[in-house]
Amino acid sequence: MDNNQEHHRPDESSKEWKLIEKSLMAAQSEQKTARRWGIFFKSLTFVYLFALLILIRGAGNVESIDIGRASEHVAIIEVNGVISANELASADHLIGSLRAAFEDDNAQGVILRINSPGGSPVQSGYVYDEIKRLKETREDFPVYAVIMDLGASGAYYIAAAADEIYADKASLVGSIGVIGAGFGFVDTMEKLGVERRLYTSGEHKGFLDPYSPEDPEEVKFWESVLDVTHQQFIDQVKKGRGDRLADDPQLFSGLVWTGEQAVELGLIDGLATSSQIAREKLGTEELVNYSYREEPWKQFFDGFGVSFGRGVASFLSEQTLELR
């Protein structure tokens, strides 16, 4: 028996060592793999942070052009998207760009490059008034508006402050009107068995509440508010365009026209692009963009949809007055 046990010990010992060696090799392989992934993720994090730092350092209110040192040029200011206090086309952003252009001695004039459906009458009015004020500080500094795809409602309100307005033959121009939109959920709540409890101080404080029945008296009042705002819009357009406007009863009805039709109605002065205006009216092809630019880091985080939820909540909970 002792001889047999001694005879089998080398084989058993050899198997044990092979298992130990195999385990050690597997552990080393796992450590190497873990180190590789660790290096990869650390490198990726470093690259991400480095790129984010560059974006933040490059952020500013205008494009990365040294405006103060540019040669003679035309200042381009873009009016893109909805005109609202919380959007790129807000009065604060547009007015800041306008002031920068008027203060630059190398700028020969401004072109408002418009592609917007309109928006807030207040924001549009702020920009209109500021253009008129700035023109008094530098009378030889022309302001042109060039409408691209769309220059409607509040966007046209702003354009009316310019010395001249141009568009493409297929651009949509006009929509001189006011709209106050909302929803009514009274019947839906009744079907669902939901009871509305609204407590106010003031007889008409909740008159825009979408969950309460409409009151004819309050509807009439709200329509009067829209009419007053509409007349303010009309007055500013007439002041800006003067006798160039055609005597057409549909002009201020809220309709839109093509650029070709808008020329005949006096809403615009002709058909041209920004480059054409810069070359033919201002004598230069050098364009410098003074438009406000959102910080890249904010654009990055907004890409995850943070602003989407905020927009939906705002849409469902607020009644807004818009030039459309």
Explain the overall architecture:
The chain has two domains: 44 residues; 257 residues, Alpha-Beta Complex (2-enoyl-CoA Hydratase, Chain A, domain 1). 49% of the residues lie in helices and 16% in strands. The chain has ten helices and ten strands. Strands 1, 2, 3, 4, 5, 7, 8 and 9 form an eight-stranded mixed β-sheet that branches. The protein has a two-stranded antiparallel sheet with strand order 6-10. α2 runs parallel beside α3. About 8% of the residues have low confidence.
Radius of gyration: 32 Å
Order of helices and strands: HEHEHEHEEEHHEHEHEHHE
CATH architecture field of the largest domain: Alpha-Beta Complex
Biggest pleated-sheet summary: 8 strands, mixed
Provide the CATH top-level class of the largest domain: Alpha Beta
Number of strands: 10
The helix count comes to: 10
If you average the pLDDT, what whole number results? 82
Low-pLDDT residue spans: 58-66, 304-319
The N- to C-terminal Cα distance equals 104 Å
How helix-rich are the residues, as a percent range?
Answer: 40-55%
Topology:
Elements: H1 2-57, E1 73-80, H2 91-103, E2 107-116, H3 121-137, E3 143-152, H4 154-159, E4 164-167, E5 172-174, E6 178-181, H5 186-192, H6 216-241, E7 256-258, H7 259-265, E8 270-271, H8 274-281, E9 287-289, H9 296-302, H10 306-317, E10 320-323
Parallel strand pairs: 1-2, 1-9, 2-3, 3-4, 3-5, 4-8
Antiparallel strand pairs: 5-7, 6-10
Helix pairs in contact: 2-3
